[in-house]
Amino acid sequence: MDFRYIFLMRHELLLLVVALIILMVDLFTVGEKKTHLIKFSLILFTLGMLIGFIPVKPGVLFGGAFQGNALTDLFKDILNMAVLIVFLQSDGYLKKAENAGKVGEFFVLIILTLLGMDFMVSSGDFLTFFVGLETASIPVAGLVAYDRYKSRSAEAGVKLILLSAISSGVLLFGISLIYGATGSIYFSDIAKNVTASPLIILGFIFFISGMGFKISLVPFHLWTADVYEGAPINITAYLSVVSKGAAAFILTIILYKVFKNVTELWETAIYALAVLTMTVGNLFALRQDNIKRFLAFSSIAQAGFILVGIMGTGSLGMTSVVYFILIYVFTNLGAFGVAAAISNASGVETISGYNGLYLTNPRLSLIMMLSLFSLAGIPPIAGFFGKFFLFTSAGSHGYFILILIAVLNATVSLYYYLGVVKAMFINKNDTPIPYFRSSHFMRLSLLLCVAGLVFIGFAGGIFEYIMTASHLFF
Amino acid sequence: MIQGISIYHFLIVSTLMFFIGIAGFIIRQNLITILLAVELILNSVAINFLVFNRYLYPDRLQGHFFSLFIVGVAAAEASVAIALIINIYRRIHNIEADNVNEMKY
After folding, report:
1. Which one of A126, A170, A226 has the shortest CB-CB distance to B103?
2. Which residue of B has its CA nearest to A164?
3. Is residue A338 scored above 60 in pLDDT?
4. Residue B39 to residue B42: CA distance in whole angstroms
């Protein structure tokens, strides 16, 4: 075997090395020195991320089980950047006294779940996909229960692991039926043999139910708000951006590659799920006061918009989904970053607690406002371009009623996003959150998010690059 | 291939196991029993893979390997779930699902 090909897996190998080094260093540091571990892990992870940017020729490994090409590499880089921002934001949380002994676990578990997601993104057969998915979802339950002396965190952990286990079971049952009908677990072989036979339809229904749980689509979304509320806020950010983004990406690939001959079969399902997800996510977001539950339902609604983009099959659909996820990373992490900074400094996690924030912390309020406007899709900010291309993709296949529903939902979402902005800028409050300065890392992460929000929309080259990468993929 | 037992017998068993698992997941109150129900589901999937492999595509081993991985992943899942359930037990001194209800709509 030619050893050059092993560099196709450079992202995974680097993450594994980084995780093992952090684990070893964590073992041999004691007491006070543990806070240095944060800086050490950040530097190590950034190095790994930078090495990952080096381009490598596309190819396949292990007889087609692992695929590396420009699109998967790009997506892994996006995930790496998102995780770097999450790490920067969790600096303040990890420096709290109660977390002093478990800093290493935080980094190791997140990097290992990211490893699982990278394998999932590159998978060329259902076995790699399944093992990657499980590697990405089992340690997350441990992270959600990270505050193990708080009963909410413990409760969220149990809810997540049990529901994620049963959803994996349902997903696997679907895969087993598809295997029974087609005789292969490789994406390319299944794509050749797939027909709309009853067994395939049944298998597909189980499969989409299991995937729907991972992306929190609406009939399968009930865990989302509870887990997001109970988890530490940085883990919530990780779950809502990185886990969801990776699962949405691989769902798109499987729908486009494995089920490409039975498009009419999945289009109905995705259509119905998109309408339900957007509408129910928006309606529930209207009545939330906890900022984490609010962002949870808003992220459910955003998943619905991703499904609208998936409806436009082909490279335009793929491009719009990847582009939207890229923007969504900066947008949502901006909002979560501000929420995390406020939660660390004052413990406030309710929207009514944000009243009068602009008077005391104007810069944080502005960043929050930019992020929320981007989530709502107001023109000059990046989020608008993300939504625009999703709708273009669906429109290129003539789903105009779906686009109408999506636009109506975007309008409804404006109401509750503006509700937060109103709380920060207009509502009066006698005891607003006092002025505070967050750590350098947090400010760096918010700066990255704002830069992403402002510039990605105008840098047309990014969309073009994703477009060429997706063209090569098909 | 086993004489006298067709693929249908196996598939009926595995489908029954799957739906008993789903029903148990919904009906049962004890968190450990819920975990057992999930294991039932995963094992039914493993049977499915083995049977499809043995009866329909005996010249390749993909189903066999898949079921091996399912066993491994199920063990990992169970260990993490039990750790978290022990954590719950330390908080509230029982593991009834009805008592794990601090967060609701």
Report:
1. A226
2. B77
3. yes
4. 5
Q: How many CA atoms lie within 13 A of B38 on its CB side?
A: 27
A312 to A247, A255, A281, A307, A469: CA distances (angstroms): 18, 11, 22, 9, 17
ipTM, 2 dp:
0.95
Q: Is the pLDDT of residue B72 over 90?
A: yes
Question: Would you give the distance in Å from CA A315 to the centre of its chain?
Answer: 21
Q: How far is A311 from chain B (nearest CA, A)?
A: 30
Q: Average pLDDT, stretch A77-104?
A: 88
Residue with tokens 């680097």: A14
Task: Give the integer Cα–Cα distance in Å for A22 and A102.
Answer: 12
Q: Which of A123, A166, A297 to mutate to test the interface with B (most CBs of B within 10 A)?
A: A166
List the single residue in B with minimal CA-CA distance to A223: B104
d(CA A295, CA A336): 8
Global pTM reads 0.93
Of B52, B57, B100, which has the smallest distance from its Cβ to A176's Cβ?
B52
Query: Do B84 and A230 make contact, defined as CB atoms within 8 angstroms?
Result: no
* Residue B75 forms part of a structural domain: yes
- A133 reaches B (C-beta below 8 A): no
Report how far apart, in Å, the C-alpha atoms of A331 and of each of A246, A443, A451, B42 are: 16, 15, 10, 37
- CATH for B81: 1.10.287.3510
How far is the C-alpha of A374 from the C-alpha of A358, rounded, in Å? 19
Residue B2 lies in a domain: no
- Give the residue numbers spanning the domain of B53: 7-96
End-to-end CA distance of chain B, in Å?
A: 52
Number of domains in chain B: 1
What is the chain B residue with the closest CA to A169?
B42
Q: Is the Cβ pair A161, B25 closer than 8 Å?
A: no
Residue B23 lies in a domain: yes
Contact assignment for B100 to A155 by CB distance below 8 Å: yes
Q: Which residues of A touch B70 (CB under 8 A)?
A: 172
Q: A462 is written with which tokens?
A: 């990014």
CA dihedral A425, A427, A428, A432 (to 10 degrees): -60
Chain B residues close to A159, C-beta within 8 Å: 100
Does B66 reach chain A within 8 Å, measured CB to CB?
Answer: yes
- The residue to which tokens 């625009």 are assigned: A388
- For residue B103, give how far its alpha carbon lies from the nearest alpha carbon of chain A (Å): 6
Q: Number of A to B CB contacts under 8 A, please give it.
A: 119
pLDDT averaged over every residue in chain A: 89
A131 touching B (Cβ < 8 Å): yes
Residue B104 belongs to a domain: no
pLDDT by residue (tens digit) across B1-36?
Answer: 777 888 899 999 999 999 999 999 999 999 999 999
- In whole angstroms, give the CA distance from residue A121 to residue A324: 16
Check residue B102 and report its DSSP letter: S
Rounded Cα distance, A394 and A378, in Å: 20
pLDDT of A176: 94
Nearest beta carbon to residue A158 from set B76, B77, B88: B88
State residue B19's pLDDT score: 94
Sign, CA torsion A462/A465/A469/A471:
positive
